[in-house]
Amino acid sequence: MILIVDDKIENITALTKILISQNFDVDSALSGEEALKKVLKNEYQLVILDVQMPGMDGFEVAEAISGIRKTSELPIIFLSAVNVSKAFITKGYTSGGHDYLVKPVDPDILVLKIRTFIKLQEQTKELARIQQDLRNEIEQRKHAEEKKDELMGMVSHEVKTPLTSVKAYIQLAGVAVHSNRMENALQFINKADSQIDKLNQMMTALLDMAKMEAGMLDFNVGEFNLNQLVDGALDIFIQSNPERQVVRTGDADIVLRGDLLRLEQVILNYLSNAAKYSPETETIGVAIQRRADNDVEICVTDKGIGIAEEDQGNLFKKFYRTEQSIAEYRGMGMGLYLCAEIVKFHGGTYGVKSNPGGGSTFYFTLPIELDEPIVNPSIA
Question: CA-CA to 225 of 20 to 30 Å: which in 113, 131, 208, 329?
Answer without folding.
Answer: 208
